[in-house]
Inverse folding.
């Protein structure tokens, strides 16, 4: 048996026993959009469940607020509690993946040899909801192979933040005094996705003002909240020294309990699955169209449209019929 | 009959008689993704043909090379020849459209009252091949309503340039001494899409060197060329004074003749129709999925995936079956 063709059930059971290389190989199948992905997802499905599984924690915030440092500190905190931790670092703008980005993540290096920690940098893939889809499938791998906590950290800004939040059970929005302050974050729409706020670099001037601004905006109802009522707590940290991190872990545990009890977790997970299914369906339909290009169908339709014998909507109807028959 | 509901056949015949407001209304239907778009395209189809129609000319080049000025000078040149000219200015990054961008296009203002010239700024739309699709449909409107030449100018860079080139019968790549030189353009991949090169601002230092660099690269075969052989000519212009523009018009006419005779024009137009059909089909399939969201189907599938009863690929199969039955 070659490495590439190692049976998936064996890889999965190795991964569930804590073999990091097996986990990495499974995630690579996701990243490479392997033809074996369908079989993999079929095997993983029964291993997940709506109520159990990992707590998926998204970390978002402007560049410079200390996301990597905070992620590293959270990994340490969860490890002290005996939890198995996965980290997915997503860079939507990068074509590179597979760990190259991690060289400069100093705080991560201390976990590099810890078998209870799995760290992976992922690039986004393709254009049809690539980020959500590949990340959702990587989450599925980590959950089904027994990770207790998965941290998703994004290098990007803007849309990527919101997309990551849509994948998480609990989203941490990081701010730092003077760097991407609360009002800017409000404008960027990232306050609305927060379940827990962290004001990092709390030893800097202006930290208390940032906290006050945040609480002011929360009292104005700018955060999404939820029916049944979760008010995002505001934690102060100095992640580089590990200060305040235990409070963040506590806040996340409380949010996790609230989300499970209120149905929020289940609703988010169903929404996540819905987007994943749609992305897969569109990608498969596009692939079928590409196959039709190999055959004469699409060329015939295109020639008809180019020559004015057919209008493009009638051609699209015929293409859809061809793809789906 | 309200303005909005004016019968399409009337609008089309007004547009063919040179009524600029009718042309503008038809293009607005494209931009707004009107529900009447299907009917419009059905009515327009028989008015186009593979051999006849407008020469569609794409203009690409780095910011600062003088694209708007050159476009304006080309419009004047074609008007002197009695041609009816359409201009589509595409800004893929802008959510605004409908002419707002044109305020600062000084060279265009002299054509604002000329009924033989139609100028429109378009924003790109949506994500599924939005730029190509809306632009392809706007081209269809202009061709079917009797324009002889359509100039497509893009404000964007990179991918947008290549996309615009894929819509055009003839693509002009603009360079200027010291601004986006030939080697940078080669790196960006835009040399390969050139049918005609224009070195604008030819009175500046370095113009001759830019021409030499370009010809050197052409002799190395860096331009795509085509079997049957078209070597892109290199024209020097000072567009702000109209100098060298007649040579560009001549080069474009020669390319147009070559493209028609060699089959290149037909191949490009079929490829353009193929992308348009695919984009419409994907958009329609996505719309059908959204309808399923209103009903219970997609939520049921998503719940199944979230709970581990279904894998996402099996769910996608069911979604596709639901969408296409």
């Amino acid at each position: 048996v070659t490495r590439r063709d190692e049976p998936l059930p064996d890889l999965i059971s190795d991964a569930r026993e804590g073999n990091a290389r097996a986990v990495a190989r499974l995630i690579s199948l996701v990243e490479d959009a392997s033809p074996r992905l369908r079989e993999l997802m079929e095997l993983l499905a029964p291993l997940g469940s709506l109520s159990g599984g990992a707590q998926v924690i998204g970390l978002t915030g402007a560049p410079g607020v200390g996301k990597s440092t905070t992620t590293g500190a959270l990994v340490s905190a969860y490890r002290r509690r005996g939890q198995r931790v996965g980290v997915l670092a997503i860079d939507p703008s990068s074509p590179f993946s597979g760990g190259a980005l991690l060289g400069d993540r100093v705080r991560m290096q201390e976990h590099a040899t810890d078998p209870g920690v799995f760290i992976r940098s992922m690039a986004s893939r393709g254009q049809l909801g690539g980020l959500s889809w590949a990340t959702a499938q990587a989450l599925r791998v980590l959950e089904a192979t027994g990770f207790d906590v998965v941290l998703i950290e994004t290098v990007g800004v803007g849309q990527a933040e919101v997309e990551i939040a849509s994948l998480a059970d609990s989203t941490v929005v990081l701010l730092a005094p003077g760097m991407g302050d609360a009002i800017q974050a409000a404008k960027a729409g990232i306050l609305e996705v927060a379940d827990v706020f962290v004001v990092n670099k709390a030893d800097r001037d202006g930290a208390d003002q940032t906290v006050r601004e945040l609480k002011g905006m929360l009292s104005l109802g700018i955060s999404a909240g939820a029916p049944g009522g979760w008010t995002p707590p505001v934690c102060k940290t100095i992640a580089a020294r590990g200060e305040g991190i235990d409070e963040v872990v506590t806040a996340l545990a409380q949010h996790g309990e609230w989300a499970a009890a209120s149905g929020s977790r289940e609703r988010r997970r169903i929404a996540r699955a819905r987007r994943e299914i749609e992305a897969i369906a569109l990608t498969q339909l596009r692939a079928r169209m590409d196959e039709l290009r190999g055959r004469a169908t699409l060329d015939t339709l295109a020639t008809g449209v180019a020559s004015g014998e057919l209008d493009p909507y009638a051609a699209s109807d015929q293409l859809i019929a061809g793809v789906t028959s």
